[in-house]
Design goal:
The complex is a heterodimer of chains A (404) and B (168). In chain A, the strands form two sheets. Chain A has a two-stranded antiparallel sheet. In chain A, strands 2-3 form a two-stranded antiparallel sheet. Chain A is mainly alpha-helical and 404 residues long. About 2% of the residues of chain A have low confidence. The longest helix of chain A has 39 residues. Chain A is built from 13 helices and four strands. Chain B is α+β, with helices and mostly antiparallel strands and 168 residues long. Chain B has a domain of 92 residues: 2-Layer Sandwich (Alpha-Beta Plaits). Chain B is built from five helices and five strands. In chain B, strands 2-3-5 form a three-stranded antiparallel beta sheet. Chain B has a two-stranded antiparallel ribbon with strand order 1-4. In chain B, β2 and β3 form a beta hairpin. The chains are: A mainly alpha (404), B alpha+beta (168).
């Protein structure tokens, strides 16, 4: 092993460890935040007893889950039942590996340790675990895997409610996966790259992709809600109808694993929204963060990234405590009859626009962004008009016409 | 149409899903910033303007006379009327021929807090109290004996007065 390789492995190992620890802390924090925001929305205070502002509440909950009894239902398929929480949990953490969370950190060292030898590192450390050339294809692949955890859990529990929850989730996640991928294809057409660092770099030079791809962001945000099983799309869980859905039979830490997975996916999806459409760790209205990397820049851009991520997490929580759950047929109708056609049409329109701008000789710049933004606004108004005329979430009109 | 199904005909304005969503989001956001109504229970109980109703029926209290003896004359009406059979009374008689309770115990776990014992008591001795903090570490401690019943200091219930049903 060369000293450079050892240095690289050391740096990567440290990054993975830190990311893992920070992600767990963030999951804990987000569970606390969800409970506090939910309480505030309901004019309550929320957990405030354990630690300052109740911040240690998730740790107390975790401790409780560790000491509780692990139940294994008699009807359960043992292997799958034990495997399922891990299957749900791992993909949601893996996703974070490809998200750049700050500007590169300048780091150079050259030291020798007894027994293990010399470690050398020079230049910049990219602030992400793996800068995969396949970028968000990896994200799409991994986020699809998380459905297996839920399906396995539902199937292996040997309980009809769990089974229904698992069935619903497989149908739901598979349908919305398509819209999620489609909304990213529009992004691919404009950005011309699947590598996340390249997408962030593009947004740094040009403009945040929310402007040229507003509708794409909307589609992505809605699909992400469904993909994460968050309200208003939490049909797999649906505690009012299915007891607890796929995790009815789970207890103690296995149950907590599903929650960790859910909140892990929530954080990841928020981070992805920030990365794809809101410039990642880019700080707007300044070019200060673009130049030569320094430690200070790394810290400040990390702050910017976290601020954006937590904004989306807050929006998720806010939506959850506002909107009621969809009925299952409404969910499927929205997925297949609205999201998918709209996403497909959007891809075609964006493709045509990109082609037209290219033939006109328009390069990526202010005019390009403005033209795309205008196009998006027109499409958005059209779509909203469609929704407002009740052709999207139907029900009442059909009922009235059919039974009058 | 099935019998008893009410079909609500809504004006087209209300059908707009989007507007309803945005409206809902605005409402929840407003609530996010509003005053919170939670009372921080042990700390704020004094400053929160909150008290039990004077008709509250909580754990019992035995009233005493000037000499500090229980007013009870061991007539046996309260164990007789008690629907939960939670009062244990063994009557005794002193040298002047006055009856007094040798044993008077109330099992607060069995008690259903109906307040009949207070209503039936001819001496206005046994009362249900305006009180609710009753936690104990052992089950046995919930059987209140005569000494403990006399030692209670909380206010007693005014019960419901049929001639003044609204408490005016």
């Amino acid at each position: 092993m060369t000293p450079e390789l050892k240095g690289y492995l050391l740096v990567t190992g440290i990054k993975v460890t830190i990311l893992f620890a920070v992600l767990f802390l963030m999951i804990a924090f987000v569970t606390w935040m969800e409970r506090r925001v939910a309480a505030w929305i309901q004019n309550r205070i929320g957990p405030n007893r354990v630690g300052p502002f109740g911040l240690l509440q998730p740790i107390a909950d975790g401790l409780k889950n560790f000491v509780k009894e692990e139940l294994l239902p008699g009807q359960a398929d043992r292997t799958l039942f034990i495997l399922a929480p891990a299957m749900a949990f791992v993909p949601s953490l893996l996703l974070f590996a490809v998200i750049p969370w700050a500007s590169p950190l300048p780091l150079a060292f050259d030291f020798t340790l007894p027994l293990v030898g010399r470690f050398v590192h020079a230049g910049e450390v990219p602030m992400m675990v793996a800068d995969l050339p396949i970028g968000f294809l990896f994200i799409l692949a991994m986020s699809s895997l998380s459905v297996y955890g839920i399906v396995f859990a539902g199937w292996s529990s040997g309980n009809k409610y769990s089974f229904l929850g698992g069935l619903r989730s497989s149908a739901q996640m598979v349908s919305y996966e398509i819209a999620l991928g489609m909304s990213l294809i529009a992004l691919l057409l404009v950005a011309g790259n699947v590598r996340l660092t390249a997408i962030v770099a593009l947004q740094q030079e040009w403009t945040w992709l929310i402007l040229p791809l507003t509708l794409g962001f909307l589609l992505f945000a809605i699909s992400a809600l469904a993909e994460n099983n968050r309200l208003p799309f939490d049909l797999p869980e649906a505690e009012g109808e299915l007891v607890g859905g796929y995790h009815t039979e789970y207890s103690s830490m296995r149950f907590a694993m599903f929650f960790l997975a859910e909140y892990g996916a929530l954080i990841t999806m928020s981070a992805l929204m920030a990365t794809f459409f809101f410039g990642g760790w880019d700080i707007p209205f300044t070019t200060w963060d673009d130049g030569e990397p320094t430690v200070l820049k790394t810290l400040v851009t990390l702050g910017a990234f976290l601020a954006k991520t937590f904004f989306f997490i807050f929006c998720y929580i806010w939506i959850r405590w506002t909107l009621p759950r969809f009925r299952f047929d409404q969910l499927m109708a929205l997925g297949w009859k609205v999201m998918l056609p709209v996403a497909l049409a959007y891809i075609m329109i964006v493709a045509t626009a990109v082609w037209a701008f290219d033939t006109m000789g328009l390069t990526l710049g202010g005019a390009y962004a403005l033209a795309m933004f205008g196009l998006n606004m027109v499409l958005l108004v059209l779509l909203l008009w469609g929704i407002d005329r009740n052709r999207i979430i139907w029900g009442q009109r059909l009922q009235r016409e059919g039974r009058a | 149409m099935a019998i008893g199904v009410k079909v609500v005909v809504r004006p087209d304005k209300e059908i707009s899903y989007l507007r309803a969503t945005l409206k809902g989001m605005a409402i929840t956001f407003r609530h996010l910033l509003q005053k919170k109504f939670t009372m921080q229970y042990p700390e704020q109980i004094a400053e929160a303007e909150w008290s039990l109703s004077p008709r509250w029926r909580g754990t019992h209290r035995m009233l005493t006379d000037e000499q500090g003896r229980a007013k009870c004359v061991a007539c046996g009406l309260c164990p007789q009327i008690c629907p939960a059979n939670c009062i244990k009374l063994v009557p005794g008689e002193d040298e002047h021929g006055f009856r007094y309770p040798l044993i008077y115990e109330i099992d607060e776990f069995r008690c259903v807090f109906c307040g009949y014992c207070q209503e039936v008591c001819p001496e206005e001795a046994i009362h249900v109290g305006v009180h609710y903090e009753n936690a104990e570490y052992e089950r046995e401690r919930f059987v209140y004996d005569l000494e403990r019943l006399c030692a209670q200091t909380h206010p007693v219930s005014s019960l419901w007065d049929p001639s003044d049903p609204r408490g005016e």
